[in-house]
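Ticket #4471: structure export looks truncated?
Reporter: QA, pipeline team
Priority: medium

Steps to reproduce: submit the single chain below to the structure queue and open the exported record.
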Amino acid sequence: MLEDFYTLNEIQSLGEGKYTCYISLNPLHPIFKGHFPNNPITPGVCMLQIIKDITEGITHKELFLSKTANVKFMALINPNTSSELTLQLELTEQPDAIVVKNITSFGDTVALKLTNTYKLC
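Actual output as written to the record:
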């Protein structure tokens, strides 16, 4: 869905549904020309989509975001200065859903924390 917006560089499985994922944002992507001109900031909705994409890749299941809770945008992600992101994911599978706890950071800065619930499509 976010073609050429980011590159998934690596997923490390830490066991028990825990993963560390490394991505690189593309600062030349057209989204950043409009969000915002001369001051690019990664849209929160794009981060939600990236988390969903990675979760679908890990689980090999098509998912639908049904609930987001405890969303905390803690730092702006400027792709020109902070294009390398680390996403820590903790997946809990339920009979009809997958719950994902996420912490996204760049360097020592935590940029996003959230808990998403996905229904199976």
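Status: closed, not a bug. The export was complete when the record was re-opened. Leaving a note from the reviewer for reference: The chain has two helices and six strands.
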